[in-house]
Amino acid sequence: MLSERRLEVLRAIVQDYVGTEEPVGSKALTERHGLGVSPATIRNDMAVLEEEGYIAQPHTSAGRIPTDKGYRLFVDKLAGVKPLSSPERRAIQNFLEGAVDLDDVVGRTVRLLAQLTRQVAVVQYPSLTRSTVRHVELLSLAPARLMLVLITDTGRVEQRMIDCPAPFGEIALADLRARLNSRVVGRRFADVPRLVQDLPESFDVEDRPTVSTVLATLLENLVEETEERLLIGGTANLTRFGHDFPMMIRPVLEALEEHVVLLKLLGEAGQPGMTVRIGHENAHEGLTSTSVVAVGYGSGDEAVAKLGVVGPTRMDYPGTMGAVRAVARYVGQILAES
To answer: Which of 63, 184, 225, 335 could share a disulfide with 299, CB 3.0–4.6 Å?
Structure first.
């Protein structure tokens, strides 16, 4: 276990390196931080921190920089989440409240996160599997062609065209719409298959094939839809950090293009808590020089999706964590009110 003083020295090194982009020496620590000990003592503390793998010495400098292990300890023990100022909170609220639909909410959230953190922002659309049904609409487009519209509690709207096995009249359509909504509105998607499995049997024999076709479309294309949608923004922000990527920035950009990789980075959407993964904690080879800060958002206690940022390991963790948490909270409020 590190002593409290050595933890303070590590905190000072992280803060100075993030702020100045320059390796930190004992003289600078003595001048900038009231550590209350001599430069010789600080040099000794830095030697212990280096020996235990929390800081390292770049070849070209006498100063030290934090390692992934050092950043990890900083985030776990030393970094409080920096609260946003009142003007920042008002700006977030005003910007997000102007959204007109879910696509607009997600788009605005990505732009806002990228601007606040000056990192790459990633926002996952609310997952159908963790949503509940707000309404199912059935519209007749032709005697044997329907449109199914599904609206979720998070404002997500999905549409599907359905070719019916036989013409389906308006009276039968209204009946199906009413019975379907009475069973599924307010229920979780995971429960929908069980709730509608015997619905065809309650219709006249000649209508059952069409009812079964509508339900098959609902279940196969919507309830069981596995593809998760993401929006990413602020990729150009990475160009400001060219020297933070020891190899090249290209592997990072290539990894960010793979949505499967990004979904794994964000983590399991049902977990609402904040996660911070640093450097080599990211399994993808192209992202071992980056850190990911992500948190769940939702319209209730359970998260329906994740949002977060990707940037270099030399990151303002308290500020980034505060911004990500605040934006997630406002997005959740907007979804709850929508």
So the answer is: 335
